[in-house]
Amino acid sequence: MRAVTAAFLVAVGASSSLLSQTPFSESHFTSLDDSSVKILTHESHPEHSLTVRSHGSNEASVKGGSSTLEDICPGATKGYTGYLNSGPKHFYFAYFESRSKPAEDPLVLWLNGGPGCSSMTGLFMELGPCTVNEDGESARENPNSWINAANIFFLDQPIGVGFSYSTNESAHGGAGGTFAASEDIYAFMRLWYKAFPESKSLPFSIAGESYGGHYIPVFAHHINEMNEVASLDDQIPLESVLIGNGIFSDTQQASSYYDIPCTNVTGIGPLLNSTVCDKMVDAVGRCEYLMAACHDYPDPIICQAATRYCGQELEVPYVESGRNYYDISKPCEGYLCYPIMNSVTKFLRTDKVRKAFGVDKAAPKFVGCSEKVGREFEKVNDFIIDTRPFVAALLHSGIRVLIYVGTYDWICNFVGNERVFGSLNWRGLPDFRYQQENNKQDWAGGLWWESGLLRYVRVNGAGHMVPWDKPVEALKMFKSWHEKKALD
Ligand SMILES: *[C@@H]1O[C@H](CO)[C@@H](O)[C@H](O)[C@H]1NC(C)=O
Ligand SMILES: *[C@@H]1O[C@H](CO)[C@@H](O)[C@H](O)[C@H]1NC(C)=O
Ligand SMILES: *[C@@H]1O[C@H](CO)[C@@H](O)[C@H](O)[C@H]1NC(C)=O
């Protein structure tokens, strides 16, 4: 979920410093007193370690009194919870093996967006093994979990998000923006494969939504670059990326803040009256050229003016209407406009859940989206990074890309996404546009089209969090993607 911030700031230079290429030395497990907790270390990378606690296995269930993870989260499969430790930084993750064929099904890393939002929202509201009940005190099995078809881990990043934390206040998350986070993700994957070498034979995908349109292209591109220089043995078997309702390019997507509330492109519009909309349409062109100026001359004075103008003229009228930012068909009620987000927050703040999910005592009280981390990304102007070139590079290097968009989202909507992919500078662009114009295909959830390695899927009537609104269709789309089949 992307937080509501006027997101048109100063361009930031991309740091492409590579991690040291020293191969990992022999790893070893060190058992703690709790037999289900293991710490994986690397002699050549003393700054990194992986703390892993298994659940769902026999050893994990030998625990006096307290609830097991499966009690708390019905439908959970075997797996692990734990932390990637990097100096003072501790990244939380929860892993569940596939309900189908864990030894063959793909490995998927799921990331929520924000920036600053926890992937626990993905786990407990969208596609994890269980869904939190409205009372916020219990959860029920999610029959349409994406773990039906894949081994999935949910990772809280950067530091300061969800259950991830730093023991050093000044080494807080977000400060380095998307590019800094990519190095931690890469380290995490290297440690993962060292700990679980059997998962190396599985195709690996990174999936996520919203600000994932920034994270995922950059992280995947970083993995690709590292693969180019890594020995065969150390390569990460990245196969595809999946991005739902993403934010890729502010200049391409800003104008859609007019289309969604002021036209009937969603089938339930227009939502704002013509007085308001006439004023908005006049602002579109000016907003676009101010943003273009900010990209060309990334001076804070220009960019702040662009941010203020575009936010005021194009975002505020919708926000003031009282509708949900993530689903135009609903009112904005509850935390982040969803009553269920209050339930998720309440649930994840209980001791029984923290304990069963192996959350460190030092981790902060759960919040769905950290405003502090969001502000740090703003400070380093991460929002104006255009991630289209990273997506193009992925496609050119043979990585499959699935873009899916719920049509009722406002904040990262389908009109903006279609402008992004209709202008993506890659060799498949002419054919992609031809398919978009002439060859849209029907499927149970809406329309889709594809060219080469790029597939674009509309999910009708879904908001920003597609698996929450359309669980059956979302799972179908996810499965057919991994099976490399057409959608029907
Ligand atoms: C905390 O982090 C800051 C910035 O990275 C560093 O300068 C400082 O030495 C760290 N303090 C400790 C106690 O590790
Ligand atoms: C908007 O589109 C829907 C679906 O095509 C249609 O039923 C509805 O009448 C339209 N509304 C307006 C105001 O044109
Ligand atoms: C249009 O909507 C705005 C904002 O809700 C409101 O202030 C204004 O009175 C409306 N105008 C008309 C003509 O309905």
Give an overview in words.
With 488 residues, the protein is of the alpha/beta class. Helix content is 36%, strand content 19%. The protein has helices spanning 58-61, 69-72, 120-127, 177-195, 212-229, 250-253, 256-262, 274-296, 300-320, 339-348, 351-356, 371-379, 388-396, 414-421, 429-438, 466-469, 471-482; strands at residues 27-31, 37-42, 48-55, 79-86, 89-96, 107-111, 130-132, 139-141, 151-155, 165-166, 204-209, 238-244, 323-324, 327-331, 400-406, 441-443, 446-451, 454-459. α8 (274-296) packs antiparallel against α9. The two termini are 27 Å apart. One 2-acetamido-2-deoxy-beta-D-glucopyranose binds at residues 273, 275-276.
Summarize this structure briefly:
36% of the residues lie in helices and 19% in strands. With 488 residues, the chain is α/β, with parallel strands linked by helices. Helix 5 links the parallel strand 11 and strand 12.
